Amino acid sequence: KGADVKGRWRQEAAGAFYNSILSGISTPINAIVNTGVIGYLRPYQAWLGAAVMGNKEEMIIAAAGIDALGKSFSESLQMFKHNWTQGLNRKPLTYQGKFDVQADIKEWKQLAPQIEKYGTENEKLAYYWTDVLVDFNNSPWVRYSQNAMGAGDALARTIIGRMEMRMRAARKAVDSGIDLDDVGKVAADTEDAFRREIFKQGKHEMWVVNEQAAKMAGDETAFTKRLSGNLEGLEKLRNVTGMRLFFPFVRTGFNALDMTFQSSPLAMFHGKWRDLLGENVDPGLLLKKYGIRPEDIPQAQALMKGRMASGTLVVGLASVMALQGRLYGTRPKDKETRDLWKMEGIQPNSFKIGNTYISFQKLEPFNTILSSVANIMNYQHVLGEAVTEEMLEKTV
Question: Dihedrals φ, ψ of 226, to 5°?
Fold first, then answer.
């Protein structure tokens, strides 16, 4: 019917390539930590944005989401364990992960009796060796990284869904005229009434995020949001022969950059900022484009402003820590200072807590920003006051 059917060996060759890229032990750890941090920050950033806006009601609703973090952790861990077990048993994960490139192998396996019955000797041999590659690519030992990241994404999405449950309960309480001091307790007692708005129960009796806004928030957090408009062409580049080598994870990389962009004053030039905080806010457009309900627009505005404020706050706190000798950037270029660092046991790209150094090298997307601030503050005596201030403003 005019469809471009790719040979199975090409799919499996791409799978082997992707698995090799993701095979590092630290890859799933970093991905899970980064996804978790971005997910956990959402209600804190919304609270900060509401505080900047002076909106007490939205602060209380965001605080209800913060309170839900601890209460939802048990269910989120169960979802992590379920997805990890699914991966070990070569079964589909609950959500498409960051790097899910494997096709369903069921149809491939159903070809075996047809090949055996009707195939030539060469076709049987070709199927046999391709099947060996299929089994290898889908073995738990090879896919452990993707399985772990998929389980981590499921954990983060469950937490976001549970936060959304609590915040909707809190909004209902506020709209009902409940005393603002009692909203948190009422929301905690009534959140289950909103579960089926956010989740649906899957075939394994696990609660899966199904509501549009919560799903899109999960896609944003996991860096799996589809590229649209002119940027959609970037994803299609991967389908050009040989381009998978150069554009393996376009969506993930672009979404990570987009998240960093939103966490800076440049957020005011972002399309989402204009849609949410521009002169003419269109509720219908926000619902269609971002899944934001009309009643949730103030909270989305608070999150947008909170992200920008938190990015500025990170630079400010990092500057103070660097001045106190608690934050270090890249290794010094000059030998004399490098030798001094080695003698004193200073670790590059690290926080210093007491006498212990904790690396932030893998803490994306903040690692580059923290390192830059530390470098600027450590060398301010060379840069001079004017240049130091200018560089800090640019870093913000």
Answer: -65, 140
The count of residues in the chain is 396
Give yes or no for a contact between 179 and 55, defined as CB atoms under 8 angstroms apart: no
Token pair 């129960």 is found at 201
The DSSP call for residue 228 is -
> Distance between CA atoms of 85 and 390, rounded to whole angstroms?
51
Q: Which residue bears the tokens 């972002």?
A: 270
DSSP letter for each residue of 164-224:
HHHHHHHHHHHHTT--GGGHHHHHHHHGGGGHHHHEEE-TTS-EEE-SHHHHHHHHHHTT-
Q: Residue 25 CB: number of other CB atoms within 10 A?
A: 10
pTM: 0.79
The segments of the chain whose pLDDT lies below 50 read: none
Task: State the pLDDT at residue 138.
Answer: 83
**How many angstroms separate the Cα of 387 from the Cα of each of 190, 263, 331, 344, 383?**
54, 23, 21, 29, 6
Q: Say whether 297 sits in a helix, a strand or coil.
A: helix
User: Following DSSP, what letter does each residue of 313-360 receive, concatenated?
Assistant: HHHHHHHHHHHTT-EE-SPPSSHHHHHHHHHHTPPSSEEEETTEEEE-
